[in-house]
Structure formats: C-alpha cells, structure tokens
Amino acid sequence: MVTMQQVADRARVSISTVSFVVNGTKPVTPETRDRVQAAIDELGYRRNAMARALATRRSRIIALLHPIIERNINAFIESAATAAAAAGYSLVVWPLHTDNQAQEVTTLATSGMAEGVLLLEVQFEDERVTRLEAADAPYVLIGRTRDLAGRDYVDIDFEQTVATVVERLVGLGHRHVALVVEDLAGTPLADYAPPLRTADAFREEVARHRIHGSVFPVRNSVSPGAGLVDRIAEDAPETTAVLLMMGDAAFGIVHDLRGRGLVVPRDLSIVVIGGSAASGALVDPPLTTYETPAEEMGTRAAQALIARLEGADAEATQVLLPCRPVSGESLAHAPVGRGSLRVLRA
Amino acid sequence: MVTMQQVADRARVSISTVSFVVNGTKPVTPETRDRVQAAIDELGYRRNAMARALATRRSRIIALLHPIIERNINAFIESAATAAAAAGYSLVVWPLHTDNQAQEVTTLATSGMAEGVLLLEVQFEDERVTRLEAADAPYVLIGRTRDLAGRDYVDIDFEQTVATVVERLVGLGHRHVALVVEDLAGTPLADYAPPLRTADAFREEVARHRIHGSVFPVRNSVSPGAGLVDRIAEDAPETTAVLLMMGDAAFGIVHDLRGRGLVVPRDLSIVVIGGSAASGALVDPPLTTYETPAEEMGTRAAQALIARLEGADAEATQVLLPCRPVSGESLAHAPVGRGSLRVLRA
DNA sequence: TTGAAAGCGTTACCAT
DNA sequence: ATGGTAACGCTTTCAA
User: Fold this and answer.
1) What pLDDT, in 10s, does the model give residues B234-260?
2) Least enclosed by CB within 10 Å: which of A142, A242, B58, B294?
3) What's the pLDDT tens digit per position in B195-210?
4) A219: how many CB neighbours lie within 10 A of its CB?
5) Is A180 in contact with A216 (CB distance < 8 Å)?
6) Residues by CB within 7 Å of nucleic chain C, which ones?
7) Are B63 and A128 in contact (CB < 8 Å)?
8) How much is the average pLDDT of B155-184?
9) What is the pLDDT of residues A162-178, one digit of tens each?
10) Closest alpha carbon to B10 in B33, B30, B40, B34
11) Which of A64, A120, A251 sits opposite B282 (nearest CB)?
12) Are the Cβ atoms of B92 and A89 closer than 8 angstroms?
C-alpha cells in the first residue's frame, strides 16, 4: 500500500501538502501541486479509507438495515451478508457503472475500504477480474470466466444441470427438445456466461443422446403472444419438450399454447432451469423447475472469500452447484406420434 | 462516543488490559476482567470499527460488486447504493435477525461502522426506530411508523394511490369493489404498515364515494386454484373490480376466472397496487398496475440521509410518493347489471 | 504557500 | 498478568 508519506517523500514536500492537494483543502502553488500529482500517479496512491475515517471521525458508510424474512430483498445479497455477519464481516454493496467498471474496480481494490470482493454477473472474458488480480485483491466470483486457472468461484453447474434434465427428458421419450435462452448480444452482458454455457452443454448432451435439439435465443421480454411458440413451431415443429432458461417466459408460453388448444404437459413439456420455484408455482400447471441455489451460492462465496482473507488455504475454491430440482406438473412423457406443435403450422 | 481509555480509567486498568478483555487476546484475571466488563457495561462501550481497522490493517469489510444493468439485483438496494456512491458514500447491507433486531440495531449504531441508517420493512410500532433514536443515530425510514413526529422517511403514498384508483373505478361505474392484501398476522411482520394503511385508506375511500368495499386478507401464496376467487364470489358476489396489493396473486386470479369462463376485464376488473409493471406484463391481459417507485424511493432515502449527515437542514424529510400508473388492459367499465361473479354461486 | 506535530481509537510489541 | 507506548495513515491546527 502506498501511503501519503511515500508520496510526500517522492514529491519532496510534507505530508500536509499532499493532503491539501488530495483533498483540495488548501491552496497549493501549481508547481508543487503538479509535483505531488505526478508522484501520486507514479506511485498509484489512493488515500486509505479507514485512516481517513478515523482522522475525520466520518466513516462515509451508511447502512441498509433489513430484517431477514421470507420476503427477501435478494437471495444473493442477503445470504452473503448473513454469512459475512456471522464471521464478523460487513458487506458493502458496490454498484458498478457499465461504462468504466474496470476503473471502478481498481479504485475499490486500492482504497482500503474493502479487503475482498465478491463479483456478480461474471462474463467469459472479464476485465474486472483481471483488474482485481492486478490489484492483488482477494476475490470470489459468483459465476466464472472461461479461463478458470487458480480463480476462486462459486457458480451454477449448468453442464451438470442440463445433463440431468436432458437425460430425464430422454427417459420420458422425448426426442426433439428445444432450449430457450436469453439473447444478450449487443448488451453490456453480451459475454455473460450462463446462457452460453448452457447452450453449449445442451448441444453436447443432445448430441450424446443422439436426439434433436434446437436453441432459441430470445431477446428480453417474452410476454403472452410474443411469438416464441410460433418460432418454435416454425423452426422445430417436432419439439415435444422445452427447456426454459428464462423463468418469466413460461407465463407467455403456457398462455400461448393454451390459446391454440394445446395443453402442458400433454402436448408439450416445459422444464425451467435457473428460475425460482416460487414463480413457477404461479403458473398452471405449476412448473417443473431446476432452481438456482442462490442462498447457498451467496453463503459459500462469502465464506470462501473470508477463508481466503483469513489465509486458511492456498487451494482455490472452485465450487459448482447444480440447480435444485423442484417438482411441478409441466413435465410428462413425450406425446405419442409426432409433436403436437406441428398442428400450428397447418 | 465512549473510548477504550475511558473504560480503562473507570476500571482502573491500562488501556491494554481493556483491549485484552475486549478481544480475548491475552489471559486476564477474573477480577480485573469483571471490573473491566462492568465498566464497559456501565459506559456502554463499543470498540470503534474504524480505529480497529486502521490498527489491524483489516477493515473486515467485503464488497459485493455488481454491474448496474436492467436485470437489477434489487431496486431499493441498487438505487440507494448508487445515490450513496454518487455522494462519496458506501452502502453496507446489514441483515437483521428476527429474534433480536433491536439489539443488533443498537450494536450497529454504536460501533462507528456506519454513520447513518436506512431502515426497511418498517412497522407501525417499531422498536428498531426507537433504538436508533436512543443511540442518536441519523436514519431515514423506507416506510413509516404510525407516529411520524420529527421522523425522516420516504414511503409510498398508499392513501393517495388508493384514492386515485378508487376514484378511477367509480368513474368507470364500479360500485362494488374488493381489496386483496397480504395477511401478515402471526408473522414477524404482523405490524407491517403497508397493508394496514392501504386497507384503512380503502375503507375510507369507498365510504366517501358511498360504494361497497370488501377487504380480503390472504395468507402468503395465491397460486392458481387457491380459492381466492371463490372467497370473493362467496363474500362479495357483486364485486366488479379487485384492487390487488399482491402482484403475484394476479396470476392465480386471472387463471381461476378463466377456468370459470369469466374474462378480465369484461367480467371483472383488476388493478394491481405496489406490484411491478414487469411482472404485470406477463399476464394476459397485461395488468393495469400502480407500480412501487422503488428506485426513486431508494435514491431519495439515501440522499435524505446524506443530507442529514452533512447537516444540511434541520427539517425532517418526509416524502410520500404515489405509485406510478402503468397502463394495462385489465381495467374496464363495470359490467352492466350485476357483477358476473354471481354466476359462481349457482 | 508550506511544514511540524498533535491527534483520531485501536492494536500489539516489549517491559515489568 | 498488566502496563507503556509506538505504530496504523490520515486530517487539521498552528507556526513559519
């Protein structure tokens, strides 16, 4: 860590002067100001948040208090915060603005505010991770990059989950299955790993089982009548089962099918991956779901990070958690004969 | 703020000894330990988190990094954290465990970790608020207690929202309306204000307009077939419009109505209060919604708290925000003649 | 305009 | 088992 004293030495001024330029507290001649600024830049100095807090008696931290109840604010945050609290740590929420996330990461990592970092919405190639490593900041990813070497992460085991689901479908006689994933191309999340990994795993599994699989990337909203059912009927009319990676899409799909006289799961089976069982229960029929183990992920990630901070093990924590199966009534045997979606083309 | 030195003086020991007993760092004779502990209790001492962080070079804070994207982690948290960051503050998430929330609040308020507090899920009578006041901790409620005198809060204007909605319904010819709210009796949120305030406002408004209004408190899940429609048909068969304070219930209701050959909004109008427009859009027909202005609430609350910390105004910030109307297709004129729910009783 | 030095509240090392 | 005291990294008053 670079201290103010080091900057002062390098700029050949007193520590007070550095403080003045850093905080703009008092006027400083342009020449000295520049010398100081140069030293700051060269050394990569960041003022220490804790020391500053102590000296000013101002932590500049505000707390968001929330009771732990079933109506939870957010499963990841709540579980991570709870695990942290149990170990005597606090969790600060640090919003990253899409334009210069990398810079913000470096700032946080070098400010001394936080000792370690939990990173959400990880992408295949993620500069934020590189920055964290460059700053030598302990971190645990909730998600994972493509390159995993030596990196700590807790993620959903998409591969395993897809394998399980496809196997189950095959066992029920399905030979033509479809996967619906979010299409993030063109958004800041274009390289977001989950849909990509899932699609890859899906293709691999259908190939392994020698059945037919089609992938449908859909943009954002899938409200009733958005045409997803038509698209599937058009491109893959033999489909008898849909693997939905967007829980919300289920409402629209079930609705549109019903509007065409088709019934779930008699004519088409639906399995949700990564959705929440709670929202699946609102659909009729209640959806067969493989739920994101969000609480466990948040807890494990926080614990892994803390373990690293306490210097427990040198081993990287690399945890893959399969989605939790929650039974519903949207999965059944494949209809006999060809898929019923065919009727839609008539 | 009570310091270690003060405890030491009172217990007639050195500051080191106090540190030893506080942290259990080194053995201390039972007698001195008791004297120190007594002094701690009497003075209400809490070790200062920032000083400790500086001395140990351990902040015991971990950060949760999350990009700001539409798929937001939680509207309240995200907006509050963003507003805080914009003002140079950080937001720490502090889970409260239902059994001794009051104690935890006091601990936080006196630890020097946070300068101010944002409190969620406020109840009519809320000991946490009293504790905050006793500890002289600046706070802003997201929600509000029954007694508002001098308290800072940002809340939904349920009264205003209900008045608007009822007026609109009356304008459309509805004379028999129902309100569905969550029944929290027996849970830790029993005294949670929103449903109570809404029900009160509802009763008042229907009385003012001289129309009929029934309130239906429902417990938790309202999945398809949970019987809510039956209950309404039974207790208030003339109902032509339902005001739903549980967004999720809409799926079940619409479904159950359809199962009985009734159509929204032809036979029954539905207006959601406090739900999210995004989930309302998943229903067919898309629901007419009065959405919680969550982002604005989070932002305003954080800003108000920071303003107080910076000592801006002595005036209490008391902001009431009406829910934002989002048009949908679940609201229409009252059916001519008596309400169609009647057919259900046949 | 700049510097010296006294805190801020703890911890932790070194004595006793 | 206890105490004295130098850090920790910064801010801020007071002098120069």
Assistant:
1) 999 999 999 999 867 888 888 888 888
2) B58
3) 999 999 999 999 999 9
4) 12
5) yes
6) A 12-17, 20, 26-29, 31-33, 51, 54-55, 57; B 1, 3-5, 15-16, 19, 22-23, 25, 45-48, 51-52, 54-56
7) no
8) 96
9) 999 999 999 999 999 99
10) B40
11) A251
12) no
> Angle at CA B189, nearest 5°, toward B239 and B150?
100
Domains of chain B and CATH, by start: 4-56 (1.10.260.40), 61-156+294-322 (3.40.50.2300), 158-292+326-345 (3.40.50.2300)
Cβ contact, residue pair B89, A60, below 8 Å: yes
**Residue B147 CB: number of other CB atoms within 10 A?**
11
CA distances from A310 to A21, A106, A115, B23, B142 (A): 36, 22, 11, 17, 36
β partners of residue A212: A176
Tell me how many residue pairs between chain A and chain B have CB atoms under 8 A apart.
Answer: 263
- Whole-angstrom distance, CA of residue A329 vs CA of residue B225: 14
Dihedrals phi, psi of B20, to nearest 5 degrees? -60, -45
Is there a contact between A62 and B117 (Cβ–Cβ < 8 Å)? yes
Name the nucleotide with the smallest C1'–CA separation from B6.
C9
Give pLDDT < 70 ranges for chain A: 66-73, 221-223, 225, 247, 312-313, 337-340, 342-346
Alpha carbons A314 and B288: distance in angstroms, whole number: 55
Span B296-315, pLDDT tens digits = 999 999 999 989 888 766 78
CB-count burial class (<10 Å; 0-12, 13-18, 19+) for A275: buried
A5 CA from D8 C1′ (Å): 13
A193-209 and A158-171 are packed helices; what angle lies between their axes, rounded to 10 degrees? 40
Residue A46: CB atoms within 10 Å = 19
Interface contact flag, A255 B284, Cβ < 8 Å: yes
B345 pLDDT band (50/70/90 cuts)?
A: very low
For B110, left (φ over 0), alpha (ψ -120 to 50), or beta? Answer: alpha
Phi, psi (rounded to 5 degrees) for B319 = -110, 130
CA distance A102 to A122: 13
Q: Which long-range contacts (CB under 8 A, 24 or more apart) does A138-143 make?
A: A138/A305, A138/A308, A138/A309, A139/A305, A140/A116, A140/A301, A140/A302, A140/A304, A140/A305, A140/A308, A140/A317, A141/A301, A142/A76, A142/A118, A142/A297, A142/A298, A142/A301, A143/A119, A143/A193, A143/A194
Token reading at B174: 């509805």
Stretch B63-81: mean pLDDT: 75
| Confidence tier at B217 by pLDDT (50, 70, 90) | very high
Q: Are the beta carbons of B69 and A121 separated by less than 8 Å?
A: yes
Q: Which of A151, A154, A129, A134 is nearest to A142 (CA)?
A: A154
- Rounded Cα gap, residues A199 and A214, in angstroms: 9
* CA–CA dist A255, A251 (Å, integer): 6
* pTM score of the predicted model: 0.87
Strand partners, A66: B95
Q: Which residues in A lie closer than 8 A to residue B225 (C-beta atoms)?
A: 284
Measure the CA–CA gap between A132 and A110, rounded to whole angstroms: 10
Cα distance from N-terminal residue to C-terminal residue, chain B: 71
Contacts of B50 in chain A (CB under 8 A): 50, 53-54, 59
CA distance A83 to chain B (A): 10
Provide the token pair at A213: 């699989």
Closest of A173, A144, A169, A197 to residue A320, by C-alpha: A144
